[in-house]
Amino acid sequence: MHLDPFELHQPTTVDEAVRIAREFSGACDYLAGGTDLLPNYKMHINLKPHLVALDRVEELAGHSATHLGAMERLGRLEEDAAFVARYPGVADALTEIATPLVRSSGTVGGNLLVETRCFFFNQSYFWRASLGFCLKADGDRCHVVPQKERCYATFSGDLAPALLTLDATVEVAGPDGRRAIPLTDLYDAAGDGIRRLRLAPGELVVGVDLPPTAAGLKGRYKKLRVRPSFDFPELGVAVAGRWDAGSVERLRLAVGGVETYPRRFDELTDGLVGGPLTEAKIARLAEEVTRRLRPVHNTFLLPDYRRRMIGVYVRRALAEATEGTAA
Ligand SMILES: Cc1cc2nc3c(=O)[nH]c(=O)nc-3n(C[C@H](O)[C@H](O)[C@H](O)COP(=O)(O)OP(=O)(O)OC[C@H]3O[C@@H](n4cnc5c(N)ncnc54)[C@H](O)[C@@H]3O)c2cc1C
Ligand code: SF4
Fold first, then answer.
1. CA distance 272 to 274
2. Ligand 1 mean position to 69 CA, how many Å?
3. Which of 92, 110, 238, 316 is deepest in the core (most CB within 10 A)?
4. Which residues contact 126 (CB under 8 A, 6 or more apart)?
5. Are 226 and 214 in contact (CB under 8 A)?
6. Does the predicted model carry a pTM greater than 0.90?
7. Ligand closest in space to the Cα of 150
8. What is the three-class DSSP state of 276?
9. Vertex 230, ends 228 and 260: CA angle to 5°?
């Protein structure tokens, strides 16, 4: 597999990056660490002739206790002991992403916007050509759920569920200026699976902000994958909460790796605030989360198995997060 030629643009400011993206609208991609985009390009998936590299844009680099620059490398976050102690659920997720080598290049922004995955999509051009291309690249039908309207590829980023449980917001910049949106709103759950982000053409992610309430929450991220050394999630369950004398003060739960969008389940967890999180309540929560999610057969593990594991992982994540919180 080889990389076709492209023109590389190297802006040094957010405004310049956005201007170039506007100039080549529809014919360019932003390039962060390239650990997701370039393998897809090598497989001739949705190639663009222009790449706008973000590594020289100073504003996007680095992190603080409450802000993650879009270009901050995952490995750098993982090495920051204070950050890891402050956000244990995010720390869990970081160590489970790919390998240390990939994490030394992969970025926060790239992880949030990582392309969705599917057996019939993450294949070489010749593999895809021999079967017939699909909706998500070059074709007009879906091989997983036979129809021509919607793609069911799986959201496979590990960071998003953990950041969703912290009520993170995302700053984006585009031709019409800047705006901040809750991370929940970055993913367009009403989309067709191909248009899956609520970003306008040319908009880029500047960074992620964490509210003061996120610090010190007891958080966990539990990931199901085939090879623990480096595989994408087949399921990822994140929880974060605060307890006072055994009573729930705050609780968030989010799931990724199952459907096309990571999802948070406030409608289930809000009702648990103000009382103890008993085993019976956890069992009911696990059951309700499972009932709401529908994996399809487009990853390695069978959907029925992944679905059965949702409850198991919800219970495991909560068991660890609530350790030592009893009255
Ligand atoms: C072997 C291997 C294993 C992997 N395993 C995992 C895993 O277990 N879990 C996981 O989550 N990921 C995994 N990945 C995928 C990937 O490495 C990570 O998700 C990584 O964080 C992507 O970041 P990046 O900076 O390399 O993104 P890139 O590849 O540079 O970009 C990804 C996408 O985001 C867009 N983009 C990037 N930054 C911005 C921005 N600031 N604004 C707008 N658009 C932007 C790009 O245009 C592109 O569409 C794996 C990859 C490999 C090669
Ligand atoms: S779910 Fe369907 S349309 Fe989407 S990538 Fe897979 S085969 Fe293609």
1. 6
2. 14
3. 238
4. none
5. no
6. yes
7. 2
8. strand
9. 95
Q: Give residue 177's identity as a one-letter amino acid code.
A: G
Q: 93: buried, middle or exposed (CB in 10 Å: 19+, 13-18, 0-12)?
A: buried
pLDDT tens, position by position, 141-188:
999 999 999 999 999 999 999 999 999 999 999 999 999 999 999 999
Going by alpha carbons, the residue nearest to atom 15 of ligand 1 is 36
For residue 116, report the distance from its CA to the centre of ligand 2, in Å.
Answer: 9
Tokens of 233: 């999630």
282 Cβ inside 6 Å of ligand 2: no
Give the nearest ligand 2 atom to 152 CA.
1
Give me the CATH code for the 1-53 domain, please.
3.30.43.10
Q: How far is CA 291 from CA 184, 241, 288, 307, in A?
A: 20, 22, 5, 9
Q: What separation in Å is there between the alpha carbon of 134 and the centre of ligand 2?
A: 6
Q: Which fold has domain 63-117+153-322?
A: Enolase-like; domain 1 (3.30.390)
Every domain of the chain and the residues it spans:
1-53, 63-117+153-322
How far is 219 from 170, CA to CA, in rounded Å?
20
- Position 327 scores a pLDDT of 64
Spatial neighbors of 111 by CB under 8 A, at least 6 apart, are 74, 97, 157, 158, 159, 160
Of the candidates 144, 109, 138, 110, the residue with the CA atom closest to the CA atom of residue 39: 110
